[in-house]
Specification:
By secondary structure, this protein is α/β, with parallel strands linked by helices. The chain is 33% helix and 23% strand. The chain has twelve helices and 13 strands. Helix 6 packs parallel to helix 7 and helix 11 runs parallel beside helix 12. It starts with a strand and ends in a 9-residue tail after the last strand.
Length: 327
């Protein structure tokens, strides 16, 4: 039997406005891909990202262009060369993993040769705002073990000081989203250490980050926009201590697992992150997050509505998906 394909846009309203250094949003526009063989269905979700020239429409077009090859027997392994890394391949890769699991009556982690996954503590993200607002949000979320702070603009130290006042005992990581210069980062680094920041993510613009190899890195620096898939790794050596694996960038779970292995072999520590999407997009990433230094899969917590059934988030962290969601 051949594999059929359905692709559609799904929109999730956010619980509140989400802001980073590049702009704000009030909803998550995602693409859902569903593959079917007979009565078995598998699905996946991706979040098109304008930073990489992706739109909902372009991603839908890329996925729909694979329909004939899928009908002709294109496998998940073949998909890795048939499509380039990015959001479109992520949705289809996830759908094919889910379809394989449903057809074989085996969980994805077992099919992938992984150990049975468990919950992982996840960061909770505070979006970019004025210091008073960020202090208030930090206070409301001070019970969480790990906060991720979006920075990358004038007044960042005031924001960070406010967050630390609001959550004095919570571990903090920060994401500058390419918003600093090398000089700004060098000036801020001592204060970041003083405030107990555990890691800084993508302080300099991708493609303009060579100075990270020249300046002192007093706390771990994580590559996000500078790291997409395994082809990125050589250029990161000497500049970064960690990489942020996002399945929308790697083009799916298949490449993400391979990237994790090679990155660890090269001496990089691992962070697993996400775009703002639903539990369906986070589900494959929970498998990559096992044992990671930092997990940031809080996308569903930022939504006003989620998939049914959603992932479970509790004091132990984000739990792997149940089969009726994915995998």
């Amino acid at each position: 039997m051949s594999t059929s394909l359905v692709v559609e846009e799904t929109v999730f309203p956010l619980a509140e406005v989400f802001t980073i250094s590049r702009g704000s949003r009030t909803e998550a526009r995602v693409v859902t891909a569903t593959t079917s063989i007979g009565q078995h269905k598998g699905w996946g979700e991706c979040v098109p990202y304008a930073r990489y020239g992706e739109t909902v429409e372009s991603v839908i077009d890329q996925i729909e262009a694979m329909a004939d090859q899928l009908a002709d027997g294109l496998t998940r392994e073949g998909l890795q060369t048939a499509m380039k890394p990015g959001a479109a391949r992520f949705a289809l890769d996830a759908a094919l993993w889910d379809l394989e699991a449903k057809t074989a009556s085996q969980p994805v982690w077992k099919l992938a040769g992984l150990s049975q996954p468990g919950p992982e503590i996840t960061a909770y993200t505070l979006s970019l705002a004025d210091p008073d607002t960020m202090r208030k949000k930090a206070r409301q979320n001070a019970h969480r073990p790990l906060l991720k702070i979006k920075l990358g603009g004038e007044g960042d130290m005031a924001r960070l000081e406010a967050v630390r006042e609001g959550a004095p005992d919570t571990a903090i990581i920060i994401d500058a989203n390419e918003g600093w210069s090398a000089q700004e980062y060098a000036e801020l680094a001592p204060a970041l250490l003083r405030l107990g920041v555990k890691m800084v993510e993508q302080p300099l613009p991708a493609g303009d980050d060579d100075m990270l190899a020249e300046i002192e890195r007093p706390l771990p620096v994580c590559a996000d926009e500078s790291c997409h898939d395994r082809a990125s790794l050589d250029a990161l050596s000497g500049k970064y201590d960690m990489i942020n694996i996002k399945l929308d960038k790697t083009g799916g779970l298949t490449e993400a697992l391979a990237l994790k292995r090679e990155a660890q072999q090269a001496g990089f520590r691992i962070m697993v992150g996400c775009m703002v999407g639903s539990s369906l997009a986070m589900a494959p990433a929970t498998l990559v997050a096992q044992g990671a230094a930092f997990t940031d899969l809080d996308g569903p917590l930022l939504l006003a509505e989620d998939r049914e059934p959603p992932l479970t988030f509790d004091e132990l962290g984000v739990h792997p998906p149940k089969p009726d969601l994915w995998g």
